[in-house]
Amino acid sequence: MLLIQSLLSDLILASVQNAQSAAALPEFELPSEAPINRPKQSDWGEFSSALGMQLARPARKNPLKIAEILIQHIPDSEIVGAVTVSPPGFVNFTLAAAWLQSQMETILQAGSSYADLDLGKGASAQVEYVSANPTGPLTVGHGRGGVLGDTLANLLEAYGYEVTREYYFNNAGQQMRNLGESLRLRYLEALGEEIELPDGYYKGEYLIETGQALAAEHGEDLRAAGWEHFKDLAEEAMSGQQKDTLTRLDIFMDVYFNEHSLYEDGSIERVRESLSANDYIYEEDGALWFAATKLGASKDRVVIKSSGEPTYLFPDIAYHRNKLDRGFKLVVDVLGADHKDQFPDVQRGVQALGYDASRLKMLMNQFITIKGERMSKREGHFTSLNDLIDEVGGDVVRFFMLMRSAESHLEFDLELARERSDKNPVFYVQYAHARICSILRKAEQEGFSPWDGDASLLVHPSELALVRALLELSEVIDLCVRELAPHHLTTYARELASTFHAFYRDCRVLDSDAPELTRSRLKLVTAARAGLARTLGLIGVAAPESM
Fold first, then answer.
1. In Å, how far from its chain's centre is CA 332?
2. Which three-class secondary structure string do you get for 157-221?
3. Cβ neighbours of residue 267 under 8 Å, at least 6 residues apart?
4. How far is CA 16 from CA 29, 52, 76, in A?
């Protein structure tokens, strides 16, 4: 699919070159791309460029004068209907109605994939998300990371990448011993013993239930078992619950990677040896340190404590080395805000091993609150993701999790999420798709099938606005991938639904007195169905045919 903003950028840059060739502008180095945005005023057109202001200094001219020169030298293009200038130096574009009408066939022929791009074709990408410790049920915070990661994976596929979805189990270290001991004590409690969980142990209801289930199944047979056995039982139970919860959100992983495997296969020791050989490891105060300051960090980091226990850094460096060894061109970690300061050290560690750390990206997601609930698995006070799905449904959870940028704090509005009306943005978008399906069913009943009308009849402003809105999906996919910002999808979904509802208000679709126009509008409605279905599919939300 064409990226309209890229085409307009090429056009206006070509106009600069033409103006320079005609000596209307002096010679200077051109930028790689021109700024193309929505205009500040709707009557200016559909796209606007501030290149005139950007070139004021190198061209040594007034920005408005530059803009006037540019429109005099802009090449002809079938996509542009009009080009105007507005103060203080904007060049404004209005798309040609004939070109917009011609895009109807492109959309209809491609169907649901009409907006997909091939910019990532031939490359592979990996997205790691959720990656919760197997120490308890998933919280709503994990849910936000899961939805962000899964939607980004969908977008990367639409961009052309071959995508691997991955979940990293942090199943090593002291936390797993504490988990095993916690379950062992809960099992003994279920057998009638009085127990007290020490500080640092996991006190949630979920382990009480697991301990009771073990007592019911095994009786006294596990009394002599140590924490290691209970750790394995707890990990199996918790990871199974986590997978079941993600399934309710239609989140499925291609790879489940266990941290413990990095110890077993020697990966962590090899990282240590390689960093030491490159003089990035030194010993001080009985601990081993990574010389991160050699690579621009503000301070060095401990990698093995004086107790002999490794910190997060060695396993994380080893894991990301493993990712790059698998050949991924792009690796995206969807991580909580508490990892913000750690991720750059992982990049530096990978760089110290001789890898291209620029292939590693982080999508950080901020915290989420629901009615002031606390979220601490260890103490047992948290809002579980399962509870939230039970309350409002998986579609609403996914859509709401994306309604703000990942870097922004998200307050999940339960009252709005429970709404079963067009006040709820999910239902508003889904209703647009369902309404289209209803229109098409009625059209068949009234004998309008097939609808192969003439697209040149689509001249009403609301008709052309809907075509333009459909073509924007490619731009949105491109923006989401370039900025690692999947939240733009929900904004677009609502705008597309609003544009369709406006068209439906302004243009009578089924009109027996105007059969040719009806068939043309049915083509547009069919294209709108494809656009809404594709957008909802990228978000991971159902596109219902009736509501």
1. 10
2. HHHCCEEEEEEEECCCCHHHHHHHHHHHHHHHHHCCCCCCCCCCCCCCHHHHHHHHHHHHHHCCC
3. 261, 318, 319, 321, 322
4. 10, 10, 14
DSSP classification of residue 332: E
Question: CB neighbours (10 Å) of residue 408?
Answer: 12
Other C-beta atoms lying within 10 Å of the C-beta of residue 537: 14
Residue 66 phi, psi (nearest 5)? -60, -45
DSSP line for 448-488: --S----GGG--SHHHHHHHHHHHHHHHHHHHHHHHT-TTH
- How many angstroms separate the CA atoms of 517 and 23, rounded? 49
CA distance 52 to 139: 50
Tell me: the pLDDT tens digits for 390-435? Answer: 999 999 999 999 999 999 999 999 999 999 998 999 999 999 999 9
Q: Under DSSP, is residue 144 helix (H, G, I), strand (E, B) or coil?
A: helix
b (16+ CB within 10 A) / e for 135-163: bbbbbbbbbbbbbbbbbbbbbbebbbbeb
For the entire predicted model, the pTM comes to 0.90
Question: Is 80:10 a contact under the CB 8 Å cutoff?
Answer: no
Sheet holding 301-304, edge to edge: 281-284, 287-290, 301-304
Please check whether residue 294 is in contact with residue 325, taking contact to mean a CB–CB distance below 8 angstroms.
no
Cα–Cα distance between 406 and 368 in angstroms, integer?
Answer: 10
CB atoms within 10 A of CB 500: 27
| Amino acid at the residue 93 | F
Paired sense of beta strands 368-369 and 410-411, if any: parallel
Query: What is the rounded CA–CA span in Å between residue 511 and residue 91?
Result: 40
Distance CA 211, CA 137 (A): 15
Condensed to tens digits (0 to 9), the pLDDT of residues 439-485 reads: 999 999 999 887 888 999 999 999 999 999 999 999 999 999 999 99
